Design the sequence.
């Protein structure tokens, strides 16, 4: 895990960024839930259902079946998730 400090409106904000590879999982949506849980140090069953934020099946299809370099970004619980069709998964927590 790397920690990035960035200035935001003159106020110092600490953001924790976790990188992983969703291709290690059968479904990208599963990788998102696991990565978010790890990033904010909770069990996966303590997170809200992913489909309340993004359609998990559509996310899986988009990332797994895309020939072009696709990247999606969305808010999930208290983090920002960025996933790309090349396997990169980045979770940024502002806690």
Sequence:
């Amino acid at each position: 895990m790397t920690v990035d400090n960035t200035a935001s409106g003159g106020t110092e904000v600490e953001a924790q960024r976790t990188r992983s590879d969703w291709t290690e999982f059968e479904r990208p949506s599963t990788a998102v839930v696991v990565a978010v849980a790890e990033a904010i140090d909770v069990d996966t069953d303590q997170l809200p259902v992913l489909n309340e934020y993004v359609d998990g099946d559509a996310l899986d299809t988009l990332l797994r079946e895309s020939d072009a370099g696709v990247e999606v970004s969305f808010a999930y619980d208290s983090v920002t998730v960025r996933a790309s069709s090349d396997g990169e998964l980045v979770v940024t927590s502002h806690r």
Q: What stands out?
A: The chain has one domain: 17-93.
